[in-house]
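During the reporting period, our protein records have gained a C-alpha cell line. A sample record is set out beneath this paragraph:
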Amino acid sequence: MLVVSADVSDVVVTVRARTRSGVPAGCTGCGQFSAWCHSRYVRRLADVTLAGRPLRIDLSVRRLYCENPACPKVTFAEQVAGLTVRYQRRTPQLQRLVEAVGVVLAGRGGSRMLRILNVTLSRCTVLSQLMRVPLPPLETPRVLGVDDFALYGDTYGTLLVDATTRLPLTLWEGRDAEQLSRWLREHPGVEVACRDGSLTFRQGIFAGAPDAVQVSDRFHLWQGLSRRVQDIASAHRGCLPAALPPVSETDAAPVEETSENTAADTRAGRHARRLFEAVHALTQTGRSHSSVARELGLDRRTVSKYARARTWQEVMRRPPRKPSTLDPYLDYLRQRWYEGQHSAKILHEELQTKGYLGHYQRVKMAVAPLRRGLPLDEPRERPPSPREAARWITAHPSRRSPHINERLPRLLDQCPELRLTHDLVRRFATMLDNRDATPLPDWLNDLAHSGLAPLVGLAGALREDRHAVAHGITTPYNSGVNEGRITDVKLQKRLMAGRAGVSLLRHRVVLIAHLRRRCADRPTVSLR
C-alpha cells in the first residue's frame, strides 16, 4: 500500500509516496516475508511524462531485517511491484520505453526522440540500455536461410534466418565455412538449408549438417544466367544495331556519313580511332591481350573491348540524345532557316508565339549545325545496349512490350549466338515455371556444348552443385526472406551511420524483428 501526495512545479511533476508500515515484504535473497523494519530511505524514480512534463517519484521505502537465519542477507530493501526494480532508477514503464526507442532508433536518434518526450538521456545510456535487453531464446529452425552481406569495405558478414517464421537468428563477421559449420553443430536439427551458389556456404552446411537438404536459390540462379547473357550480348555488340527498324537507303546514308565524319573530327573520335588501330595492329600479330595492355598502358578489359570491336565507332562513347521540349518545333526551325531567317533570337520569339516555353540558348544551340552546313540533330533511336538486349532476352514473352516484340526477332535473326542464348534461357525459364528439373541434365549438356564461353563456365559451376540446383527448381524453398532481412540490416547500419559494431548490429536486427512481430500481432482497438 502507498500513501501518495503530489507537487507540481514549473518544470517537473514530483510525486511523494511512502510504503505502509507493518505490511510484510519478501526478502530479495530467500523470498521469506518479514515485517521487521530496520530503517527507511527515499528512492528517486523517473517515470514517463505526465501531461507533457517530466515526472519524478520520491518513494520512501523500508529496509527490513530478514528473519531467515540461513539467508546470506541480513537486511533487504522492499520492492513495490510494477514500480521499482532493484538497482534501477527508472520505473519499469519508462525502462520499457527507453529500450523500445533504443531498439528502433539506436543511440543518437533514440536520445533525440526521448528528448522530445521530455526524457533526457545520452546516446551512450540509450545504447547501454539497449545492449542489456536479453535476446529472445534461439530455437533451431527446420528451414534455415543463409546469406552474406557487406559490413564495410571488403569485409562481409553472415546472416542466418528462420525461413519458416521469417525472423533473423543471428549474424557474425566473416563468411567462412568453419563458422557456419560450428553453428550448425551447436544447433542440430536443421533439415533444409537455403543458400546462394557460394562454395563457402555449400562446404559449411555439408560439414555442419550433412543430412540437411541444400537448396540453391532460384533468384540467384536466374541472376547468374542473366549476367552470362549480358556478357554474350557485350561480345556481340556489333549485331545490336540490327534491332533498329529498317530505313530507306536514301534517308540513312547521308545522315550516317555525316555523323561518322562529325564523330571523327571530335577529340573522343580521334582517341577511339587511334586506340582501335593500335590494339588491332598488335593483336593481329598473335599477342595476348595482357601483353598488349602492358605495352599500351591500358587495362586488359579495355584491350579486350577494342579487340572485339569491328570498327572504331563501336567503342566510341556516344551518349544518347535526350528528348527535348524543342523536338516538336524542329521542322518549323528548318523551314524558317531555308526561308532565310538566320537569327536565333527572332526564331526564339516566333517559337514562343507557337507555345514554346524553353530558353533562347536551346534554340541557338539547335540551329548551330545549320550554320556549319549540317542537318539538324533530330532525335533518332539508338541501338540497344548489351544490358538492354539481355533484359529483352530474359524477360518473359508475356511481359515484353510491343516495342521489344518488334525489335527482338530482328536481333535474333541477325545473330545466331543470341538466338541460341535466347532458346537456352527460355528452356530454363520453363523448368522454373513448371517446377520440373527433369530436363536439367540435357540442358546442362547443351549449355556446355553451346560454344559460348560464359555459358560453358556456367554449366561447369551448376554441374558441381546440380543437386542443390534441382532442389531449387522443384521445392518451394528459396532465399527471398534472406534478401529482405539483409535489406533490413543495411537500413539499421545507415541509421547508425555505419559505425555499429557486430554485437550492436546483431542486437538491433534481432530485437527489432521481434518488436515488429509483436506490434503486428497486437489487436487493434476501434474507437467508434
